[in-house]
Structures are given as C-alpha cells and as structure tokens.
C-alpha cells in the first residue's frame, strides 16, 4: 500500500492516533465538576454537555448548557470554561493496537507528528498518551504561529528538513480532508486519510486539491505491503 520510496510516516494527532471523543468526554467531566451544584450533579451535567455536543451547534455547547441550567452565559463565563477545558489534564488512553503498530513502524520508518491546536492542549494530549518516545520529531504548529496552522505548508517543509528527507519519502496520515492534505499534496507527499467511525469531523468536504491519495479504515492497514518485519 505504501510506495517503496516512503521512509517516514508523519501522523496527525486528533482522530488519527486516538479518537478525539476521548478528549471531549474528558473535558466535559472537568467542566461538569466546575458547574455542579445542589440541583445538578456532575454526571447529569456531563450528560447534558455530551447530548448538546452530539446535537449541536458544537461551537455553543457551553452556552446552551448554561442556559439549560438557568445560568448566565456572558462572554467572560464562556471564556473561563473554555480555558478550563483547554488546559485540563486529559484522561486519554492509547489503544493497544496503536501502541503495537507504532512500535513496529518505528523499526523501519522515521516517525513524525504534526498537530494543530492550542499549544498547552496538544502538549497535554501527547503527554497523556505517552507518545513522545515513538517520534523522531514533533511539530506543534502553534509554536510556529497561528498563521502556520494547516493548511499552511510550513510544518511539512520543516518536518522533511528536520528528518533530512525529500517529499517523495514522506507520507502523512490524518483524518480531516478539509485542511489536512492540501499542503502535503502540494509538496508531493503521499497522503492517507484514516476514516475512524466515531471521528469528530465525519462530514468534512475537501477542496479540489485536498483529497488524500488513499483512504484506510484502520491504522493497521499501514502494515500491508510495507517493509515492516
């Protein structure tokens, strides 16, 4: 499945190496604990948050739940909750299959990670999943500047440089065609979309230049026809 030229596998984080709903549920637990009172316990508020997340709109989950609780949803209150959500230490667990896969791939490929998002949030996710030791290089695009979030090619150019590889030697595995594959496609990377059934962005529409080269349903498919032992 992977071209023989590939020497490095570069991964996205959310909904690629782990299901992002894990992080959402973890954050909602912390928010629910913050909002719990004598009328509504943590479990009931967490359920309200999850139901609102599922039905939408997702960019107003906290507003909606605060209104359901008959509480004010002023901007400063929302900002405080967003800060708590983004900076909490998440309870995440790397799937055993992914752990085994990364260990196998590391024997034969250079491994990298490129991830968008607020820096403390993404760093805490990587720490919670104990991912650091798998990767030769990790790029948090927030460290480069917000203007270099995907679909900017900056992180991909830096990754290839840091690994001392050509674009034809690099493959990027990610989930969201709306932004993930535009830059690596332009640079000549091999691009792979992972179709997790529970992914947060199942209906993302790719631009004309954003289609992945191939699609897979499970990361274990990376072992097919690759030169892993």
Task: Describe the structure concisely for a colleague.
The chain is α/β, with parallel strands linked by helices. It is built from nine helices and six strands, in the order βαααααβαβααβαββ.
Low-confidence stretches: none
User: Residue-averaged pLDDT, rounded?
Assistant: 95
Q: Could you say which structural class the secondary elements and strand pairing correspond to?
A: alpha/beta
Gross morphology is: elongated
How far apart, in Å, are the first and last alpha carbons? 15 Å
Number of helices: 9
- Estimate nothing, just give the exact number of structural domains: 2
Q: What's the SSE blueprint?
A:
Blueprint: E1 8-11, H1 20-35, H2 42-55, H3 61-68, H4 75-87, H5 96-106, E2 110-115, H6 119-128, E3 137-140, H7 141-144, H8 154-162, E4 170-174, H9 182-187, E5 190-194, E6 214-216
Parallel strand pairs: 1-2, 1-4, 2-3, 4-5, 5-6
Supply database-style keywords.
2 domains, 6-stranded parallel β-sheet, 40% helix, 9 helices, elongated, alpha/beta, Rossmann fold, 229 residues
Tell me what the structure shows.
The protein has 229 residues and is α/β, with parallel strands linked by helices. The protein folds into 2 domains: 8-18 and 92-223, HAD superfamily/HAD-like (Rossmann fold); 21-87. The protein has 9 helices and 6 strands, in the order βαααααβαβααβαββ. A 6-stranded parallel β-sheet has the order 3-2-1-4-5-6, sandwiched between helices. α1 (20-35) crosses α4 and α2 (42-55) packs across α3 (61-68). The protein is elongated and about 60 Å long.
